[in-house]
TrEMBL record:
InterPro entries: Histidine_triad_CS, Histidine_triad_HIT, HIT-like, HIT-like_sf
Xref: Gene3D superfamilies: HIT-like
UniProt protein name: HIT domain-containing protein
Active site: 101
Lineage summary: Bacteria, Pseudomonadati, Pseudomonadota, Gammaproteobacteria, Alteromonadales
Sequence motif Histidine triad motif, location on chain: 99-103
Domain HIT per the UniProt entry, residue ranges: 6-115
SUPFAM superfamilies documented for this protein: HIT-like
Record GO terms (molecular function): catalytic activity
């Protein structure tokens, strides 16, 4: 689970993907298979496999993910109506890509938090 994923290649633009935001800590781009009208992924540049692997040294990066989500929500025009931020962890959490990422979801009513 410590192997790099496709997200590292996107961050380095080895796989060309339009970036919505990038700085020294985080990168954001649209989800390739959007589940809702506005579906953006906000990813630390550093490879961290799961939330279980974060340390106190990552706190600045994790905070930056939130402030970038806020900025992008405004740019998407979804900030006032609302949106949801999700980070999945491991199998039960539904994590598919083992490089932590925050989903910014909005652009339509999102309904109940979970449908099991
Ligand atoms: P997870 O289930 O791990 O929380 O979410 C992984 C997300 O990454 C999924 O929503 C999936 O559609 C998205 N994804 C997987 N591969 C790629 C890719 O190559 N490019 C982009 N832009 N999104 C991807």
């Amino acid at each position: 689970m410590s192997e790099e994923t496709i997200f590292s290649k996107i961050i380095r633009q080895e796989i060309p993907t339009p970036l919505l935001y990038q700085d020294e800590l985080v990168t954001a781009f649209r989800d390739v298979a959007p589940r809702v009208d506005s579906h953006i992924l906000i990813v630390p540049n550093k490879h961290i496999a799961t939330i279980n692997d974060v340390t106190s040294e990552d706190e600045l990066t994790l905070g930056r993910m939130i402030t970038v989500a806020k900025k992008l929500a405004k740019e998407e025009g979804i900030d006032e109506k609302g949106y949801r931020l999700i980070i999945n962890c491991n199998n039960d959490g539904g994590q598919e890509v083992y490089h932590i990422h925050m989903h910014l979801l909005g652009g339509q009513p999102l309904g109940a938090m979970l449908s099991l």
